[in-house]
Model the fold of this input.
Amino acid sequence: MFEIRPILSALLRHKSSTFLIILQIAITFAVVVNASSIIKQRIEMMNRESGMPEEHLLTLNVNAFGANYDLENNIRADIELLRKTPGVVDAVAINQVPLTGNGDSGGISATQEQYDNRESIPVGFFMGDSHTLNTLGVKLIEGRDFNEQEVIYTAERPEVKSSIVTKSLADKLYPNGDALGKPVYIGGGEYVTIVGIVKKMSGSWVHSSLFEDSMISPIVSLDRFKRILIRTESPQVTAKLLGEVEGLLIARNSERVVTGVRSLVEHRARAYSGDNAMTIILWSVIILLVAITALGIVGIVSFNVNQRIKQIGTRRALGATKLDILRYFVTENILITSLGLMVGTLLTIGFNVYLVDQYDMPSFNWYLIPVGIIIMLLVGFVSVLMPALKASKVSPAVATQSI
Amino acid sequence: MLQMNNIKKIFRTDLVETHALRDFSLQVEEGEFVAVTGPSGSGKTTFLNITGMLETFNSGSYLLDGQDVSQLNDNQRSKLRNEKIGFIFQSFNLIPDLNLYDNVDVPLRYRGFSAKERKRRIENALERVGLSARMKHLPSQLSGGQQQRVAIARALAGEPLFLLADEPTGNLDSLMARQVMQLLEEINQQGTTIIMVTHDAELARRAQRNIHIVDGQVSDYQQLQPVLEVAEA
Done:
């Protein structure tokens, strides 16, 4: 016996207060579902596998200032020194480090014609010697790694013949899965041959569409500014080296400055700091909105209970049990919440269409709506419980009192 | 039908102990129209609340249709109240957001009748009080007398053992009061037992039997005579 019809007709006689609470629930629901969707997308993005042993990786920049600084020999010597350092698995001089937000990118294609038609695929260009894959810790799933002989040390634009690409990029270039041994056009009529494919490797720009599409070339460019990536045996060695590596390099040659000594874990945290902050803000918004709505429900039901003390007493006198009274207010609240959620669902879809349209965001997963509905119904139920319990305790003797 | 023996009701606060009913005994038979009178503070409302099972009592026994009320829990009292008693309140106590039909429906829903049975009872009850044409009206669209008639219809719809009326004409002007009283008399003549609590001596005289409460006890009928005479004069 849920008295749905009389409750509805009573609600219709208080249109403005009912409408306001329905609107509040609807807006809360729309914001909560869309915010949850954004949070979910951000978390998924932050949890993407990088394909690298991040806790074992650290990076630094070497800026040479000496007048007669021999770039090639110093790079070779630095890397040699680092590779011989206890606890270091490998090290490489590299043009960019994953997750750092800096580096080189460009467009490549499977055919010259595609390249000329500007149908190229955006990629991150990584350059390093034959230790690059080992230092990055990425897994080669097809083909081979670079050998010493094909590595070019140069300050000019080199003529490379081979490259290693990520699986994601290989599949974009050659959707049939036969990229190995195939050419990749890099502009100016030049092409390189894919000699290896790695399973997964993060790019430098975490929010970019080319995040998973990288190409590695066997080049060590001779620049005064050089990035170095080091892979260690353990996170403990990484932590130790973070404090020692600068001294180690400067001790070998003091004609340079060592900057930006950071672990890849720190780079990751920096790269996703905005997303992390956004997630925290959105969680706060959700909690705040839900709390305000819950308090709103508590407030309006408490107000209704206080307004209807005599009515409740009369119902009790006419035969309502305590449970009947409790059920009356819970049913009333479920009806209001349900109406709010119906409006809210339409609002959620509209809001999402707007977000997708205006901000190019992915649309939300449909299951967030039923999950949101269940959560909001629970919130409504919990909110109404306290004032409804208070109502159920009203004595039937109130019916004969002059209040 | 209704048997109260030595009912005692005490209200206690930290400082004061008030004996609202002292060894109160009363028996009401089926078909009677009993008026309960008494001065202000005599215990009329306490009597009404205990008779209507709206309040519990400290000692004594109360048998309603053979059932010992003191042994019942809150839910059982609610059920018994719903089945056996038709309440008529001084301020009508209609639910302002519900139309007449839904107002009369309130106790029937708690009884768990089917929608069809409820409809039959509501229509009959409203017909009986002459308001069947205004079922969809809200209480606020009716006069005080009409509202009290709706309350009587609500009390009658459940076909209770007796009607318990609390100053049923207290909030009405004399014309409307007369009409309502007439209606109650008709209902009683048709066989419904009525217990009416009132401070109005004239109204009390129209009942078959008068119970006068003084200091929480039933006073002799003789003691009531001077009161009635004064009222008559």
Notes: Residues 123 and 214 of chain A are 5 Å apart (CA to CA).
